[in-house]
Specification:
Layout lengths: L1 H25 L2 H13 L2 H8 L6 H13 L6 H8 L4 H6 L8 H11 L6 H4 L4 H95 L1 H19 L1 H14 L5 H17 L10 H5 L2 H9 L6 H12 L12 H9 L6 E4 L5 H11 L3 E4 L10 H4 L3 E7 L2 E7 L1
Parallel strand pairs: 1-2
Antiparallel strand pairs: 3-4
Helix pairs in contact: 1-9, 2-9, 4-5, 4-7, 4-9, 11-12
Length: about 400
């Protein structure tokens, strides 16, 4: 902090010196700018007019001698005419190095500037161009004198700037060292924080592991009996795999054909199918059950919760409803299946309609289009012909591409 304060004070002192020197130079700048503006306004015709003089007026010759001195040319009229003939003379005058005018030039100009009539007003009577050139020579001389007076201040500013650079470099070195120290401290702090976090993680991990070991020990004890049951299940599943082909065939036949029959006739159909499998050497169980093959205990419990009766006949019917590819027609005088379907499809936004409803077809079409479940109640012996494509699954999807429609059938 102390080094920064020293550098800041040094910078302020140096800037004050520069400002003081610049203020002195600024006294001459308006005259220089005014002279340059006058030069910029000069036209080539005015300069060319001066060149045409064979024997120029006295003050014109005097001014051109002064201009030749400024450009370190010979002080005669031929040299002046050559200088006036240069195409970029005006740019040379505007870009004249006013901060580096040689002492010899200033010394040679002195007699001319001491002439009482060496001024813009008097020379204007002889030539507009030479009046502007004279004004420029006077401004350059004034600037050079002030610049010479300011030179000691410039040297002091240069020395102060050198000191400031030295102080600034030292400050930068110390700031770099400080930055390195702070970076090292930050690195150590991050390492410490990381180690503390790792320690906490390990402590938590130890606690979790100990807790898991306790639970695992309890679970191992509790699952000792389960291991026996699992082994029995594996043996049972291996036996079932031997007859899975025939059992699946019989179950598929059940779904396809025996939905409309009572329990006794269903049992007779199954017995016939089992005999057929055995005749054709298809492995099959002696008493295959559609419930064991196509349902699981969880699904059956859900159905019962949703209102399905607990008997095997109702469970078989539920399997036919959920596994069959055709739309089920349910004869339900006690409305047990009706309640079960409503509860089962409630969360799927089930739509319930009758053939007599006024918007029957519109609701039906919306359900087909959106894919919503639909329960059609009070169906009689005859059906509306509009239902035939739905029941036969003769529906299709149409996909629109820009203005064209490309229907593709979907069985």
């Amino acid at each position: 902090m102390e080094d920064e304060a020293v550098a800041r004070v040094k910078a302020e002192e140096t800037q004050a010196m520069k400002d003081d020197a610049q203020r002195d130079l600024n006294q001459a700048l308006p005259a220089v700018e005014k002279a340059n503006e006058a030069i910029s306004r000069l036209k080539k015709e005015s300069i060319g007019e001066v060149r045409t003089f064979t024997k120029p007026p006295h003050m014109v010759e005097v001014v051109m001698q002064a201009v030749c001195i400024m450009f370190e040319k010979k002080k005669d009229w031929p040299s002046a005419k050559l200088l006036l003939g240069e195409s970029d003379l005006i740019n040379q005058i505007r870009n004249y190095p006013k901060d580096n005018i040689p002492e010899s030039v200033l010394r040679d100009l002195k007699p001319y500037l001491q002439m009482s009539n060496f001024n813009y007003k008097d020379i204007l009577q002889s030539s507009v161009a030479c009046a502007s050139l004279a004004e420029w020579v006077i401004a350059m001389d004034m600037y050079a004198k002030i610049s010479k007076e300011v030179e000691p201040k410039r040297k002091r500013v240069a020395a102060a700037e050198a000191d400031l650079r030295s102080v600034t470099e030292q400050l930068k070195k110390k700031q770099l060292q400080l930055q390195q120290v702070e970076s090292k401290i930050k690195e150590l702090q991050e390492s410490y924080d990381h180690q503390v976090a790792e320690k906490k993680k390990l402590e938590i991990s130890i606690m979790q592991t100990q807790s898991r070991l306790k639970r695992a020990s309890k679970l191992t004890t509790a699952l000792a009996d389960e291991q026996i049951r699992w082994k029995e299940n594996v043996t049972e599943f291996n036996e079932q795999m031997k007859t899975v082909t025939g059992n699946v065939f019989v179950s598929s036949a059940c779904v396809a054909y025996y939905g409309a029959f009572p329990s006794s006739y269903r049992l007779e159909l199954v017995e016939n199918w089992v005999e057929g499998c055995k005749e054709h050497k298809i492995p099959v169980s002696d008493n295959p059950s559609i419930i064991n093959v196509l349902a699981d205990a969880f699904s059956i419990r859900q159905w019962v919760t949703q209102g399905l009766p607990r008997d095997d006949f109702s469970t078989e019917n539920a399997i036919l409803v959920t596994k069959g590819r055709r739309w089920p027609l349910i004869i339900d005088p006690q409305e047990q299946a009706n309640r079960w379907i409503k509860n089962k499809e409630k969360e799927n936004a089930l739509k319930i309609i009758k053939m007599t409803d006024g918007h029957f077809l519109r609701i039906l079409e919306n359900c087909v289009r959106i894919g919503m479940p639909l329960l059609l109640e009070d169906v009689g012996e005859t059906l509306d012909p509009a239902l035939e494509p739905i029941l036969l699954k003769q529906t299709f999807m149409s996909v629109e591409f820009e203005d064209e429609k490309d229907p593709s059938r979907n069985g």
